[in-house]
Amino acid sequence: MTTSLLMPNTGPDSVSKSESTGEATVHVAVGVVVNRERQVLIARRHQNQHQGGLWEFPGGKVGAGETVQDALKRELLEEVNLTVRECARLLSIPHDYGDKKVLLDVWIVNIFSGEATGREGQPVIWASISELDDYDFPVANRAIISALKNLLHPAP
């Protein structure tokens, strides 16, 4: 990945309201951290969280006035002890869970420093792309997994 792929945040702040329904949408910066072995970092959500017990790619809410890249850097350092050195936008996923609407702003993190650790007590593991199907993820994450399979294991 090159830094020329980086794009500024032009999306909404962390929570915006849909004009048609009035429901809030939570804007989330998501990091797909890829190590040298082409494994990705995943973490298990705490049971008391929305979609609790499921696995996810680390990240969190984009704060008001914060760029997605700044939110991603802050969240990965706070949650999994990694400092983002380089990242590139992968895709955006709007999803309605029924009880919550999210906009996942997904970035590939291919240059980072630090040792991955669950700083909030959550388990974290490095998984190969082929292993991701063995873990239960929130529905919105299926598009991320599909994009990763195409990017890192393209069809012949």
What does this structure look like?
With 156 residues, this protein is an alpha+beta fold. The protein has a single domain, classed as Nucleoside Triphosphate Pyrophosphohydrolase (Alpha-Beta Complex). Helix content is 15%, strand content 36%. The protein contains two helices and eight strands. The strands form two sheets. Strands 1, 2, 5, 6 and 7 form a five-stranded mixed β-sheet that branches. Strands 4-3-8 form a three-stranded antiparallel β-sheet, with no helix packed on it. The longest helix is centred in the middle third of the chain and has 13 residues. The protein is globular. The two termini are 21 Å apart.
Strand content: 35-45%
Instruction: Kindly provide the radius of gyration, computed on alpha-carbon positions and rounded to a whole number of angstroms.
Output: 15 Å
Oligomeric organization of the protein chains: single chain
What's the architecture in CATH terms?
Alpha-Beta Complex
CATH class: Alpha Beta
Q: Characterize the largest beta sheet: strand count, sense, and whether it forms a barrel.
A: 5 strands, mixed
Compute the number of structural domains. 1
Mean pLDDT: 83
Distance between the termini: 21 Å
Shape: globular
- The low-confidence parts are 1-21
Quick synopsis:
This protein is α+β, with helices and mostly antiparallel strands. It is 15% helix and 36% strand. A hairpin with a 6-residue loop joins strand 1 and strand 2.
